[in-house]
Sequence to fold (261 residues):
Amino acid sequence: LRGSKAKRIVVLLHSQVFPYTEAAMADLVELAAQDSRILLCLFDVAILKTPAASDKLLPFTRVSHQVASCELPRDYRRGVVRQYPVGNPVGLPFLAELVADQTFLGPLQTTGGDRTLGVEDFAYRQLNYMNLEHFTQIPAHNLIAEGPRPEFDGKTVFVGYTAYRGWTFKHREATFANTPWQADGDDVKAGLPIVYLHGFATANLLAKAWLHPSSPMVTALHTLILALLGYFIWRLSAGLASLIFLGGWCGVLLIHALLFA
Fold:
């Protein structure tokens, strides 16, 4: 990858897969020191900030401007990831702060934190999961055998672990997370690798394709139109209105069953 013309090389380091105290981590830091395109993303930041574990961060102090947090704050571990953190007022910056200029992001929404991750308050964008087919996964052994690819030129390349490793008391983030393609509260193993989520989010940020809340006027207008439509149908025929109501709910349940079968 260092021989390619990639704009950035983002390396996600899940601590349960790549222990931060291993000698190989110093070699990775050395590579990052030699190549400013390399960004190192850490997990379990809340644990790393404690005095007992602070030595695990020592290897990264040399390239502190290329180190970010890749954790995804949410209400509970099985929750669907809908908010992508783009600003952390204290502590290690989130990945978005290194790949997208804050002035480019514009006004941010702010929410309460995730205490399990040690994040008290953070700015976020609503994550948009469109264009799933636009991401290509290349196994590491293929890349090693074939060398740099021209499609990397000018792009942000993510290097991540795509097999499943669950969370533990020691490691607060699994290598997978739930997305809208899974039911809320579903087993995290049925979700997507976290490296994919960061890929979606980076595409969102760079293309300004995140989800925007609708205007209160638009919401009020939709509500008024539906209320008037329901009123006139009910006046026309109570039986027809009941049939439409029941048929609509059956359609919703059918679509839900097909999506999450």
